[in-house]
Design goal:
binds adenosine-5'-triphosphate, transport, translocase, 2 domains, alpha/beta, 302 residues, ATP-binding, 6-stranded mixed β-sheet, 11 helices, 4-stranded antiparallel β-sheet, cell membrane
């Protein structure tokens, strides 16, 4: 549904999107995960025809995004980081306004129901909660029934309940047969929603696959973390059963990557006893996309 080849964008002498290529399949939720400034918005807005690339090819639903911008608009819906809404229009009036921009639009009532905004139809935009505002922004993005929807960090700033309710909406959009391109810096969001994820940092795609496969490629499935001020015991940690890697984190934390959690812990406790190492605050967890990100970039996403 989307093909991107060798896409590049420069601002001054900074290359913010560095020759990236990828494809998004039909009816897929495709996520771009990366920290602030990674180049996600720039990439998304080039695909949407809002920014001109310096190089590369973009085809969306068979339309050349660089040359056929008018045609492109019929096929795509966008929720930008700052979708313009008018404070003193009601929810219903806002949808009607955006619907009037297109020759054919979905019935307003249907959108109010789909986005759980019936009770707010007469409420001014100014008085909506963050979650309701985002739901309205997405309702407006799909008012012309587009095949492809772009959501730029749709849940940033929302509380957990509003975030989950928005996830349901995104899943529903896919159920309706749409293709969704989403950017986020929340790993959980990427893990829950996305069929495939591109991990982006400094303008480059570092890894691209399903969340499950990205985690599987790490090789070890469990992380043990505990405070450890200096690295003099790290070589001993690396000999513990199951430990494949010892990583020093910021804040005097050490992380053991293991595929035999119970065995590692069984050997770690006597070792800590022997050297009087406090294991206060020790935690164990299954590997996540955060670990994939750490592995790829050497830094934490959150
Ligand atoms: N119009 C512009 N002029 C100059 N530099 C820009 C412009 N837009 C973005 N940049 C720079 O390009 C880089 C990538 O920005 P971009 O907004 O695409 O990243 P992002 O991954 O979407 O981050 P965020 O999550 O903060 O939106 C940043 O260093 C940013 O400062």
């Amino acid at each position: 549904m989307i093909q991107v080849e060798n896409l590049m964008k420069r601002y001054g002498n900074q290359t913010v999107v560095d020759h990236i290529s990828f494809e998004v399949k039909e009816r897929e939720i495709f996520g771009m995960l990366g920290p602030n400034g990674a180049g996600k918005t720039t990439t998304m807005e080039m695909i949407e025809g809002l920014r001109d690339p310096d190089d590369g090819k973009i085809v969306v639903a068979g339309v050349d995004a660089k040359r056929q911008k008018k045609k492109l608009k019929q096929h795509i819906g966008m929720q930008l980081q700052s979708t313009s809404l008018f404070d003193y229009l009601t929810v219903k009036e806002s949808i009607e306004l955006y619907a009037s921009f297109y020759p054919k639009a979905r019935p307003v009532k249907e959108l109010l129901v789909s986005f759980d905004l019936q009770e707010k139809e007469k409420t001014w935009v100014k008085h909506l909660s963050g979650g309701q505002r985002q739901r309205l922004a997405i309702a407006i993005a799909v008012v012309h029934d587009p095949k492809v929807i772009f959501l730029d960090e749709p849940t940033t700033g929302l509380d957990p309940a509003a975030r989950r309710s928005l996830w349901d909406i995104v899943l529903q959009l896919r159920e309706e047969g749409r293709t969704i391109f989403l950017s986020t810096h929340y790993m959980e969001e990427a893990e829950v929603l996305c069929d495939r994820i591109a991990i982006m940092d400094r303008g480059k795609i570092l890894a691209l696959d399903t969340p499950r496969e990205l985690i599987r490629q790490l090789g070890t499935n469990t992380r043990i973390e505990f405070p450890s001020k200096d690295d003099c015991y790290d070589s001993e940690f690396s000999t513990l059963a199951g430990v494949k890697k010892v990583v020093r984190l910021e804040n005097d934390l050490v992380q053991l990557h293991t595929d035999q959690l119970a065995d590692t812990l069984q050997q770690l406790i006597p070792l800590a006893d022997k050297y009087h190492l406090p294991l206060n605050g020790i935690s164990t967890r299954t590997a996540t996309l955060e670990d994939v990100f750490l592995e790829q970039t050497g830094k934490r996403l959150s």
